[in-house]
Design brief:
It is globular and about 60 Å long. The chain folds into two domains: about 5-225 and about 300-330, TIM Barrel, CATH 3.20.20.30; about 225-300 and about 330-345, no CATH class. The chain has 14 helices and 15 strands. The strands form four sheets. Strands 1, 2, 3, 4, 5, 8, 9, 10 and 15 form a nine-stranded parallel sheet that branches. A two-stranded antiparallel ribbon has the order 6-7. A two-stranded parallel ribbon has the order 11-14. It has helices at about 15-25, 40-50, 70-85, 95-105, 110-130, 170-180, 190-210, 230-250, 255-260, 270-280, 285-290, 290-300, 305-315, 335-345; strands spanning about 5-10, 30-35, 55-60, 65, 90-95, 135-140, 145, 165, 180-185, 220, 225-230, 265, 270, 300-305, 320-325. By secondary structure, it is α/β, with parallel strands linked by helices. It is about 50% helix and about 15% strand.
Amino acid sequence: MSFKVYAGIDLRLPPSQVGVAAQRIEALGFNGMNVPDGVHNGLLTATLALNATQNLKVATSVLVAFPRSPMTVAQACWDLQQLSNGRFELGLGTQIKQNIEDRYSAVWQKPLTQMREYVLSLREIFKSFETGAPLKFEGEFYHFKRMQPFFNPGPFVNNPPPVYLGAVGDKMISLAAEVGDGLMAHPTNTSPYYVQQKLKPNLDLGIKKSGKSSSDVQLMLATQIAVGLTDEQVAKQREKQRELMAFLYSTPAYWPSLELFGLQQGDEGLGKQLQLLTRENKWQEMTALIGDDLLDKVVVSGRYDEIAGKLKNHYQNVSDWITFPIPENTAEDEATASVIKELQG
């Protein structure tokens, strides 16, 4: 089985360093690159990455949708497709109520309905760009009815970008297949068991509702990997992953995978314990609660000379689109490039 392999970048990577990072990722042989939208503007980061590369696909993973008008995002999509000769991919997400209202001062009322309208209105704007047809979309949250020829950029270069959704809840996952082109799965939801038990059934519901075929819907797994040249390096990376999982699982939105593993029931269990410890700033104690059994379920660990085989065994018939970490040390670039090539082969 061959995989598409994307790299990610640190959400704090400053704009001045994005181009160099993207060129390194392309040189390592990755198919694509995911750019965040948190500390820095995801659309600006995508612009810098696309402008610095020749063949690398660049995806927002994910762009916070609700603070931005679908029209401004559609315009950015057109510009990025033209700039890159069609290498841009749009990933959208809702974020959470507190951030949307208090950090962005934007509207959060019915996120599922709003995201549905967001994607559908975006498609209508794309259609108006492509065909010159009058723009008309009427929804509860979005209303578009004006596109003068003066402001219409015309057809896309190499078609409009695909639109993926980042989602955690069942209904939003289904929506990703119904109105989007696929799902960008959250790191806590990438174990094969979770994919088979939760993600795929909900994606299938969206596929059925839309009348699409399963081949029309893509699934990107933000795979969690602990890798190194030696067993000692792998062990250190596992501890970093343990810290990350302790932080992520302290958030109730990410408890569904704990529930599936039998570690959380309602407000009782591992997730609640972690949440209480965050309120007490007991970060060291949080990490100690993530046992090896749970870590093995959500993190694939191994040396560079064995990790490709482990990933193939782990994700065979689960998804053909995964992520792989960029090494902190450039001395590991050759080993990384070899892994990427083997995964793609």
